[in-house]
Amino acid sequence: MTEMTKLDPKALLADVTEFLWLEADMLDRKAYGDWLDLWLTEGLYILPIGDGEDYENQLNLCYDDDKMRRNRIDRFNRGFSISSAPAADTVRTVSRIVIDSAEGDLIKLRAAEHLIEDKFGRQRIWAADLQYTLRVTGDGFKIERKIAKLLNSDGMLNSFSYLF
Amino acid sequence: MSLDTPKFSDLDALYDVENAKVATEMYEDPTLFQEEMERIFKKTWVWVAHESEFPDKGSFKLSQVGLDPVIVVRDRKGKIHCMVNRCRHRAATVCEVKKGKTSSFQCPYHGWGYGLDGSLRAVPYPEQYGDDFDKSQHGMLKLRTESHEGMVFATFNEDAEPLVDFLGPEVCRYMTLFMKQGGGFPVKVLGEHQFSVPMNWKVQLENTTDAYHFPIVHKSFMQTLDEKTEDLFAFMEKNEGWVEDLGNGHSIMMMMPEREDLDACLDDPIEPRFEWLAEEIRKEGYSEEQVKKIVLAVGGPGFNMNLFPNVSFSLSFFRVLTPVAVDKTEIRHMALGMDGGPAIANRTRLRLHEHFQGPMGFGSPDDAEVWERVQRGTRGGEELPILVNRGIVDEEPGVMGPRGHVSSETGMRAAYQMWKRMMDKEA
Ligand code: FES
Ligand SMILES: [Fe+2]
């Protein structure tokens, strides 16, 4: 995979697309253990509010380092959280993938995500702009940073029992 | 609905004070909701902003008083105004920017211009209105506005008592204690989480001083805390706290009495969970006393206070409710920090806020779920009452009203009594 990233932009796009689709499928199936394995330990998973980019010094919907990510998944899995027992079902599509840069083992890309949730017989629809920083490792792509910016991140939301 | 179910004209059937029973219609009746908007939200003081949200001359924010969208703004002299966001010509909203700074408001439709105090300043091509058109009669609809401890309230009611009288002495005292989480700096709103819940607004009104739900609903949050912090939140077991009716529908839930007054805790050792933080702040050159004060402030005070009808002070954030429809309520959780305080301390506050609050917090989604469950549950068994009688058995007199066990429903009873007072047409 390492060679491909340097050589062929089309092949790289196919590779990252496959990776994003696998991730989307994991999230819809709530295969969170597998999802955690996609991350580098130093990785950050952020859902910001509004247009600010100083994520560390602003209020976000979530700002997860490795520990918070694991706690979050634990909370989903252990069955004590009423909002995730059961959680809403989701079906999502990730598309409009644009690779911003690919240098060495570092890939920066953007994508669109559409998600529909279903719970209590009602469906809600969400759209997010995704930004990824991926590392190419001997073990495939790993996520160093994922920012999921909801279209109405600074507007009135609902509570989420799943991930974007 | 059967004919013998209580109608809202029968207030005693809607809230039975003696037995502390709430009728199902209280969450379900759209006509009652309209009445509440008129008799409560158009009549009493409603929280609209914190002063730090629009700190400068000309800065404003959009807010809501009941169903009325309003603009809260500071004029050139620093005076705060609140007016309905509606042009006096043909009703267009004059501002759709949530927060910002301006020298005037101009309606986008035909260009009527308003000053920061809402007065009509300019009308394009005025000739067709004739000579006796009186601009002073066409200013934006203003609300009375008063502040206390940086909290800005507005009311449509010219005859409402002064804000501090509505709050009462105990609420004012606790507000001052709450603001000590500025750690010696002014308290500043750092951001807000917003989510809407399919529930009646009173379901939220009940919740801020409801300790009974905490160990159940927030078990999954507690599980992510270290032991010492978990112990801090074990107020149900420790049984040292209380809930007290503070008058006019307001109430306080003192969960950690040892943290009532942060200034009285300055001799306490620094909590282990914040030792690393203390070290970081020391490195920035703060004195040991300041370090302690700031670290205590990061942890926040030990109580929730609920103000009737729409704002509460909850440990370390403000919770604001906005009724939208009989079964829809918008919630805002505003994160607070220290204006000018160490960045690391504010960062820590932000991370703590994200941990519990908001659409992806470890606490709020579970709250939202059970609130929605209440609304769903009241679709059945309409004749059954909702019980808010917990703890009535061992209540004792407090400073302003009854005081009960930390998990008693004293706060809800306080709110419903005020509700009843305000809904009473005769009063
Ligand atoms: S509606 Fe505002 S100027 Fe006409
Ligand atoms: Fe709660």
Largest sheet of chain B: 9 strands, antiparallel
What is the CATH level 1 assignment of the largest domain in chain B? Answer: Alpha Beta
Task: State the name of the first-level CATH class of chain A.
Answer: Alpha Beta
Quaternary structure state of the chains depicted: heterodimer
Helix count of chain A? 4
Biggest interface pair, residues each?
A-B, 30 and 37 residues
Shape of chain B: globular
Quote the average pLDDT of chain A: 95
Low-confidence parts of chain B lasting 5 or more residues at pLDDT below 50?
1-6
* CATH superfamily (homologous) name of the largest domain in chain B: Naphthalene 1,2-dioxygenase Alpha Subunit, Chain A, domain 1
- The average pLDDT score of chain B comes to 95
Termini separation of chain B: 28 Å
Identify the overall geometry of chain A.
globular
CATH architecture assignment of the largest domain in chain B: Alpha-Beta Complex
CATH topology of chain A: Nuclear Transport Factor 2, Chain: A
Percentage of residues in helical conformation of chain A: 25-40%
Structural class of chain A: alpha+beta
Low-confidence stretches of chain A: 1-5
Query: How many β strands of chain B by DSSP?
Result: 22
Spatial order of strands in the largest sheet of chain A: 2-1-6-5-4-3
Description:
The complex is a heterodimer of chains A (164) and B (427). Chain A is of the alpha+beta class and 164 residues long. Chain A has one domain (3-150): Nuclear Transport Factor 2, Chain: A. Helix content of chain A is 27%, strand content 43%. Chain A has four helices and six strands, in the order H-H-H-E-E-H-E-E-E-E. A six-stranded mixed β-sheet of chain A has the order 2-1-6-5-4-3. Residues 1-6 of chain B have low confidence and may be disordered. Chain B has a nine-stranded antiparallel β-sheet, with helices on both faces. In chain B, strands 3-12-11-6-5-4-7 form a seven-stranded antiparallel β-sheet. In chain B, strands 1-2-20 form a three-stranded antiparallel β-sheet. In chain B, 48% of the residues are buried. In chain B, a hairpin with a 4-residue loop joins strand 1 (15-16) and strand 2. Chain B is globular, with a radius of gyration of 23 Å. Chain B has two domains: 46-155, Rieske [2Fe-2S] iron-sulphur domain (Rieske Iron-sulfur Protein, 3-layer Sandwich); 168-423, Naphthalene 1,2-dioxygenase Alpha Subunit, Chain A, domain 1. Chain B is of the alpha+beta class and 427 residues long. Chain B contains 14 helices and 22 strands. The interface between A and B is medium-sized, with 30 and 37 residues. The complex binds FE2/S2 (inorganic) cluster and fe (ii) ion. Fe (ii) ion binds at residues 213, 217-218, 363, 367 of chain B.
